[in-house]
């Protein structure tokens, strides 16, 4: 893992890896069974400075970069994808839009607690008919005097219902725009809606197949009034801002998927060496050894892909296609490695107390979230001039 890292990056990875093994892993099965995000673990992540990794020191951050964040996410995902996605969403979907597009007043109000891990925020994009097609958004925000009036609903919103959730950045239709060819399109903007605002309801959490300790809810907005100053970024730039957020998120999800795939390798190696069948460890059978070798090859390839995309992102270079490739390759690796690990474990791999069983359930969403893998193929194909 550490051959391509600076000393500082290597130390960070080892720090988070140790935290994952000693603090997160022992709580993982219980949290998964109870469908509860362990808030004491989240608090410890805040104390370690994980929520502030890519933010400057003026807001209480660590002064790091996106690569550092992805290292931490990979290390956590080895043992618990729910905890890893909590960190990813808290930064990429919660704090980063405020840092990148917020006014000085918005940054001063929200960033310190988000960066310290004392607060969480969600990104309200997905709707029943608007997921991969964000332009199909139906939630509206109408400017009425000095207030926005928000109506609509969102679904699958991470970190939206925890005890420390503070606000949702809501993607909403704020009007119409006429293109140069005379056609009319929706004007999409982002509105900050704080928790506790009348008319804003966090609905009951989902009963999910995987990521069961991650906090995920549908949201309803019924004549929700917020100040006009709660506009996040330039009016009408919501869609462009979403795309940047999603591109970066794909790198982080690729890092998460790589960690999940790596965790399956670690568990499979340990089990194959200790599990005896017909008097010998199953690791001595070539089929088992070759299966694990193939799993390791997937991890290596996925890691190279997300690290390349993250380095490009931090250097200010184009990274959209590389992010799509990383997300595609790594999510496939996580799913395939989880399947192979479960097969190696046999009946034990079908028990939820087994880490590989949880990785198997958790990994499917990696092929869906942050843009389905079909969307990633579309992005890659377009980069090759294949528009069909």
TrEMBL record:
Domain Acyl-CoA dehydrogenase/oxidase C-terminal, chain residue ranges per copy: 236-384
Acyl-CoA oxidase/dehydrogenase middle domain mapped to chain residues: 123-224
Domain Acyl-CoA dehydrogenase/oxidase N-terminal: 6-118
Record-linked InterPro entries: Acyl-CoA_DH_CS, Acyl-CoA_Oxase/DH_mid-dom, Acyl-CoA_Oxase/DH_mid-dom_sf, AcylCo_DH-like_C, AcylCo_DH/oxidase_C, AcylCoA_DH/ox_N, AcylCoA_DH/ox_N_sf, AcylCoA_DH/oxidase_NM_dom_sf
Pfam families linked: Acyl-CoA_dh_1 (PF00441), Acyl-CoA_dh_M (PF02770), Acyl-CoA_dh_N (PF02771)
Cofactor(s) the record lists: FAD
Keywords for the protein's UniProt record, in alphabetical order: FAD, Flavoprotein, Oxidoreductase
Alphabetized SUPFAM superfamilies for the sequence: Acyl-CoA dehydrogenase C-terminal domain-like (SSF47203), Acyl-CoA dehydrogenase NM domain-like (SSF56645)
PROSITE patterns: ACYL_COA_DH_1 (PS00072), ACYL_COA_DH_2 (PS00073)
PANTHER family, A to Z: ACYL-COA DEHYDROGENASE (PTHR43884), ISOVALERYL-COA DEHYDROGENASE, MITOCHONDRIAL-RELATED (PTHR43884:SF12)
Recorded family membership: Belongs to the acyl-CoA dehydrogenase family.
Protein's UniProt name: Acyl-CoA dehydrogenase family protein
């Amino acid at each position: 893992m550490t051959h391509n890292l600076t000393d500082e990056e290597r130390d960070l990875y080892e720090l988070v890896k140790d935290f994952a093994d000693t603090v997160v892993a022992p709580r993982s099965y219980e949290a998964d069974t109870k469908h509860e995000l362990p808030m004491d673990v989240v608090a410890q992540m805040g104390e370690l400075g994980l929520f502030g990794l890519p933010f400057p020191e003026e807001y209480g951050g660590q002064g790091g970069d996106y690569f550092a964040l992805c290292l931490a996410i990979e290390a956590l995902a080895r043992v618990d994808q729910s905890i890893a996605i909590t960190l990813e969403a808290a930064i990429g979907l919660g704090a980063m839009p405020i840092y990148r597009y917020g006014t000085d007043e918005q940054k001063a109000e929200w960033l310190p607690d988000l960066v310290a891990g004392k607060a969480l925020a969600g990104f309200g994009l997905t709707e029943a008919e608007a997921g991969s097609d964000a332009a199909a958004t139906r939630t509206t925000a109408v400017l009425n005097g000095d207030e926005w009036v928000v109506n609509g609903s969102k679904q699958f919103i991470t970190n939206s219902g925890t005890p420390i959730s503070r606000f949702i950045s809501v993607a909403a239709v704020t009007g119409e725009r006429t293109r140069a060819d005379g056609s009319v399109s929706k004007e999409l903007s982002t509105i900050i809606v704080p928790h506790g605002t009348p008319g804003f309801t966090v609905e009951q959490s989902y009963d999910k197949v995987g990521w069961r300790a991650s906090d995920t809810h549908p949201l309803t907005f019924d004549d929700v009034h917020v100040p006009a100053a709660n506009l996040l970024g330039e009016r009408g730039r919501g869609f462009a801002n979403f795309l940047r957020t999603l591109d970066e998120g794909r790198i982080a999800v690729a890092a998460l998927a790589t960690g999940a795939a790596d965790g399956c390798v670690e568990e499979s190696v340990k089990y194959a060496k200790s599990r005896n069948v017909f008097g010998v460890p199953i690791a001595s059978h070539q089929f088992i050894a070759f299966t694990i070798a193939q799993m390791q090859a997937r991890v290596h390839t996925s890691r190279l892909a997300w690290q390349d995309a993250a380095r490009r992102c931090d250097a200010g270079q184009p990274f959209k296609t590389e992010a799509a490739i990383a997300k595609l390759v790594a999510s496939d690796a996580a799913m395939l490695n989880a399947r192979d690990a479960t097969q190696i474990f046999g009946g034990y791999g079908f028990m939820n107390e087994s880490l590989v069983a949880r990785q198997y359930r958790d990994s499917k969403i990696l092929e869906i979230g942050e843009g389905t893998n079909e969307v990633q193929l579309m992005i890659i194909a377009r980069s090759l001039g294949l528009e069909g």
